[in-house]
What does this fold into?
Amino acid sequence: MAATGPRDAGDPGPAAGRPLVVVLGASGFLGSAVVRALAELPVRVRAVARREPDAPGSVETRRTDLARPGAVAEAVAGCDAVFPFAAHIRGPSGWRIAEGDETAERIHVGLVRDLVAALRDRAGGPPPVVVFPGSNTQVGKVTADRIDGTEEDHPEGVYDRQKHTAERLLMAATEAGHLRATSLRLPPVFGPPAAATTDDRGVVSTMIRKALAGEPLTMWHDGTVRRDLLNIEDAARAFVTALDHADELAGRHYLLGTGRAPALGDVFRSIAAAVARHTGREPVPVVPVPPPPHFEGSDLRSVEVDPSAFTAVTGWTCRVPLEEALARTVAALAES
It folds into this structure.
């Protein structure tokens, strides 16, 4: 991201000429990883979260409740770019949200409205950049099992509808010239937590923890359902890479993924084997079980992601092979 000069003239230090990048939800799984990736770049980083962010010493940290009126405007004051990662986490699978959950609506949609209002009509300099974390499940039910981002969206679940609404707010603000937003739609992301304050509640880390505890790995299907699984290191690098291509990316969404979708039965058996190698015990069994009450139709839908549109603009590709990513995650969670 090219330095555009600080918007807050009161910063006299050697970093004063560097752009200010704000990470909202900086204590979360993806947010903390992006903060650490940004800390290696010639930018100023402001990490904002309800819990005190665990960040490198060069990073400015702010602890605040972003749902408080005026909090988002305060957090992004003087910024050149924003990553809005704040999320409503509830239970073991935070993305399964009940109809009428007003808190989730406030966090996933309301904070984006606040962000658009705070960045609108800013005087001086180019419009701020916003890189939004969408979900590849926003597309809803599709007939093909490989998606590339050109499909018409029909989001089904509450979480997907909220993500889609927030994404549309940002695209409308981009079209109006108030900011430069893009949405990077994610598949399931997993990997070693970047900070002690964060926890990955996704399916891969959940199964690794079960295997470390000696418990069977359970599936709600016969194991043939396929998923594209993205390592946290590759995901964080994609978001940081987007900063250098803000104008090219602005105004649309892009899919992130590896381009490969292994069967979850094979993934779970690889997890059991990786944990066995780490612990010296026999691999735990992988078994099918009846689905729980919060089961959704999308849980049985295979999805393979084609990230070539994002790669064509930015040159980003995944670097961490699945087996290596699983081994790293097992080692990290075994020590936690």
About this structure: Confidence is low (pLDDT under 50) at residues 2-14.
